[in-house]
Amino acid sequence: MSTTQWWWVRHAPVPDGGRIYGQRDLDCDCTDAGIFAALARELPREAVWVTSQLKRAIQTAAAIHAAMGQSHEAVVVPELAEQNLGDWQGLDRQKFLASRVPRRPFWFAAANERAPGGESFDDLVGRAAGAIKRLTMQFAGRTIVAVTHGGTIKAALALALQLDTEAALAFAIDNCSITRMDHFVPEIGAYEWRVHAVNHRPWTRSVAGEVPAAARGTALA
Questions:
Q1: Integer Cα distance of 36 and 52 in angstroms
Q2: Domain range list for the chain
Q3: Which residues are CB-contacts of 56 (< 8 A; sequence separation ≥ 6)?
Q4: Do residues 44 and 61 touch, judged by C-beta distance below 8 A?
Q5: Considering the entire predicted model, what is its pTM?
Q6: Are 174 and 203 in contact (CB under 8 A)?
Q7: CB-based contact 83:55 (threshold 8 Å)
Q8: Between 55-68 and 33-42, two packed helices, what is the crossing angle to 10 degrees?
Q9: Cα(175)–Cα(63) distance, integer angstroms
Q10: To 5 degrees, how large is the angle CA 111–CA 115–CA 116?
Q11: How far apart are CA 176 and CA 153, in angstroms?
Q12: Is 3.40.30.10 the CATH number for 2-216?
């Protein structure tokens, strides 16, 4: 039975000024050495690395490689970018959320609502799922580290667990957290997925719920 490991990492926090960023190409804050040292200890050293084309994913992957003492090499996969939030990008996040009736508890909109000039979460799931399936076939039996985005990782969970897309929005995916899943191809029958961990934060201390300020970021793009 062929097994392909996926290690998903959400990018480091983005200094966004309280504004919705979606696919805006903003830098991220990779200055917390403790977080990156913890990621370097946790993540596999022999792997295929992939990122989206957005700077925050590329910068985070490069910072992890630096903490590992390795040169940075990654395949850029644009289909793994965050949801394009169209005309909502750049708006004040809190004012936007306050204007939404009814307000969605975990995201800016329902999974099937398309942002003006942009995408719905359903659109993101569709494009990300196609790339995940392609990469799983291309690198079958290997280990993949994917440094991407909160929405993309939720899309991967929706694919692996065959979830309703609205339900997938309920996952918490913190900045720099690890989500682990394996893809199996049995000798007979269809492929299967196993999810090992969601939102794993290897830098956390023994005190329950204590997270370094640099890793808190925001749950919303």
A1: 19
A2: 2-216
A3: 11, 12, 14, 25, 26, 27, 28, 149
A4: no
A5: 0.92
A6: no
A7: no
A8: 70
A9: 14
A10: 155
A11: 12
A12: no
First to last CA, the chain: 38
At 205 the pLDDT is 61
**Residue percentage of the chain with pLDDT more than 70:** 91
Whole-angstrom Cα distance, residue 221 to residue 85?
9
State whether the Cα torsion 206-69-48-15 is positive or negative: positive
Q: What confidence tens digit (pLDDT) does each residue in 88-106 have?
A: 999 999 999 999 988 888 9
Q: Which amino acid type is present at position 179? A: T
- Choose among 104, 84, 118: nearest CA to 166: 104
CA separation for the pair 133, 144 (Å, rounded): 12
